[in-house]
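mind reviewing both lines:
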Amino acid sequence: MRVPLDAFAYHEPWCVGDGIGNGWGGTETTVVVDERVQQFTGARDIHEYWQRRRALLAGSAGLWRGPTFDRAKLGPVHPAIESAAGQLFADGHYSDAVLRAFKAVEHRVQQITGSSEIGQRLMNSAFGGASPQLDVARATGPATAGERDGFKMLYIGAMVGIRNVRAHGDHPLDDANEARDAIAFASLLMRRIDWAVDRPSDETALISADPSG
């Protein structure tokens, strides 16, 4: 049975994660490694590689460094973000966990709006304008427009400054703290989408505010 190289590599102790190679088309996969791969340098064949691998996984000679954070320490994030990134974070694949979290945000926006756009263009069309497709603002009165515009920029910034650079594979590897903070941000963005989808209508809000109702 043949196994795709990326599927094999993903389970190796030196693999940090995988991602979309070109960041846009989804036609290529990039396997991201860290310095632990150097411990296989000079292996003459698959048998020697496997011996070293067993030593790594067994923790002999201090070679294997397993993840030091478990999934529970990711925090109470949005269920969709937990589903996308929780296990990757627990396994120590921090950069890939961040990427998957923001791809989950992007995918949900696509689903709700029915758009095939991605990244910055998607977020600008979904959250921009005076009457956005997804209205994530909770403020009322003069502050509403500012909150809408501010969150639009947050969604755009999340795609350009967090998702895309990891999808391209050009970003330094994240540590657990950086990844946890980024994933918490993705969770906030996902919860605001919940608010936009489930927000009460003006009529419902007036009824609930009326003490006689």
Observations:
- The first helix runs from residue 5 to 9.
- The beta strands are 15-20, 29-33.
- The chain has a mean pLDDT of 77.
